[in-house]
Amino acid sequence: MNIPTVKLRNNVEMPRIVLGTFQHNNRDELRDLIKSALQIGYRAFDTAPSYRNEEVLGSIFEELIADGEVTRGDLFLIDKIDGWQMQQSNGNITEYVEAALSKLRVNYLDLLLIHWPFPEWLVKTWESCIAANKSGIVKSIGLCNVHERHLLSVVDNTEFTPDVVQVERHPLNSMSGLVALNEELGIITQAYSPVCRMIDKLSSSPIIAGIAEKHGRSKGQVIMRWHIDTGVVPVFMTTRSERLEEYKKIFDFHLDASDLSKISMLNENYKIFLESRGCPGF
Amino acid sequence: MFPFWIAVTIFLAITLSGYACIRLNRVIQINTEPPRMLGDLRRNFDYLLLGSTNVWGRCHFVGEEAFARVLSFAQPLRNLWGDYLVLQHMHSYLKSDGIVVLTVDYASQNNLQAKGLNYADLQMLHPVTLSSLGQRAYQRKLAYPLLYFPNYCLGYVYYILVAKFKSRRRWLVGSGKITGKDATYQQNLSGEITQIIKRVSEFCDIRSLGLKVIFIACDEFASENSLEIIESLRSESNRPECHIVEDPEQIISILA
């Protein structure tokens, strides 16, 4: 079974589940992981300059494409613009996009995201992203780690709506306001930390355990399916190929409205990644 | 000929001093670091404390239970501008309608007037902020406080020793009174404090955070000054909740 896709507002098809590469920079381990992911059917991969693995990923993809294991067209590559890049370029990030293409050894990115909404350079950086999008070197653009006020400010100032918004989202931080706003604006929400690193308060939740038992699935699968059934694309991390298999099997069942509501009610605005620590003045 | 035992003594003294410096450097570095985000998973605090450590330190030793949901980023020798920068970097530790508590401590001139940031403040800030502030090669500098921030380190050691050998409360009570209390001084002081409070207030308002400003008025001058500032904030649409206390321990009842 292939991983389904979702159509972005610009008609680009994006896979409904993404493999994140944060904290992965050992070439051999990453190569094995990506090879397994591709064999299982994953096509979307997420990186950022601060993950320090763009070059490693580039060499892996180049090798896999040369070996005929995958084509560039099969892949959906997501990269980001970091705060220091926004600062150093004063928002004119074209040279960093070109550097990312060079490191990843591709001639276009499928999705470029602004990693953190540093207020001083957010609008200028967004305008630069729009230019990169129009030039064709970036197929889609979006924002990360934003609240409604950042999103509305960007849209109001540039009259250009992002294709994707990526935020930390899981049952303990359901981001219902932002997800609803994204839906209203036709933006696809991506959720990083989709299972909140399965911290105790989530893994010991009787609600999640009950729903998992009802569907005969793991707790992780139930949470990942909650994202899918609420219209959100999870971006998950793992080092284990068993986990890749496990999360591939979330597309053959559904949660009912009562399950979704029970999971959403676990929300307590709990975040692993504190926005202000990633972006002062957030 | 140079006596052998003198050479050995000098060698040992240099080695031990070097070791002590390396240890002290490391201790100061670790003790001034902010919490590790992926290691310390406490979140959604009710209160975020900023301002004079003289005050907050004193409160910490009273009623620990009451402060279970309180996170303090107060540091000795930080000024209000530093508090504002730390707030920008740390406010996400608060729950969505959490409250920032900013102390304006008239017993600490540094808290009110000093410019610049000390080592502990710089440790708290984001690399992008440090870069904006013109702190070049900050990563190297922050790794060697003894070398690059000797004054801070001396102060740090002094506070630790005083706290160890005297009553803890003694150093936490703070010392020093406002000097140069003429009209111009008062006007300048009020203006500077008001400006920072307005910025903090606007910052909190945009993020739907509460703000309590607590003036620690150690004498008549401080009380008058505090009242003047509160009066000038009255016209603000997002004016913060202000309190004047004479004794820091009164803060506990304000937060309760």
Protein architecture, described:
- Chain A is of the alpha/beta class and 282 residues long.
- Chain A has one domain (14-270): TIM Barrel.
- Helix content of chain A is 44%, strand content 16%.
- In chain A, strand 1 and strand 2 form a beta hairpin.
- In chain B, helix 12 (220-233) links the parallel strand 4 (210-216) and strand 5 (241-245).
- Chain B has a five-stranded parallel beta sheet.
- In chain B, 55% of the residues lie in helices and 13% in strands.
- The longest helix of chain B has 28 residues, at 4-31.
- Chain B is α/β, with parallel strands linked by helices and 256 residues long.
Quick synopsis:
The complex is a heterodimer of chains A (282) and B (256). Chain A is built from 13 helices and 10 strands. Chain A has helices spanning 27-40, 54-66, 83-88, 94-104, 122-135, 148-158, 176-185, 200-203, 206-215, 219-229, 241-248, 257-264, 275-278, and strands spanning 5-7, 13-15, 18-20, 44-46, 76-81, 109-114, 138-144, 164-168, 188-192, 232-236.
CATH topology of the largest domain in chain B: Rossmann fold
The most extensive interface between chains reads: A-B, 22 and 24 residues
* Measured distance between first and last alpha carbons of chain B: 72 Å
Globally, the shape of chain B reads elongated
Q: Uncertain regions of chain A: pLDDT < 50 for 5+ in a row?
A: none
Principal-axis shape of chain A equals: globular
Tell me the name of the CATH class of chain A.
Alpha Beta
Radius of gyration of chain B (CA) equals 21 Å
- Count of β-strands of chain B: 5
The CATH topology of chain A is given as TIM Barrel
> How many domains make up the coordinates of chain B?
2
Strand content of chain A: 15-25%
Task: Provide the succession of SSEs of chain A.
Answer: EEEHEHEHHEHEHEHEHHHEHHH
Mean pLDDT of chain A: 96
> Largest sheet of chain B, if any?
5 strands, parallel
What is the radius of gyration of chain A computed over CA atoms, rounded to a whole number of angstroms?
A: 18 Å
Level-1 CATH class name of the largest domain in chain B: Alpha Beta
Number of domains of chain A: 1
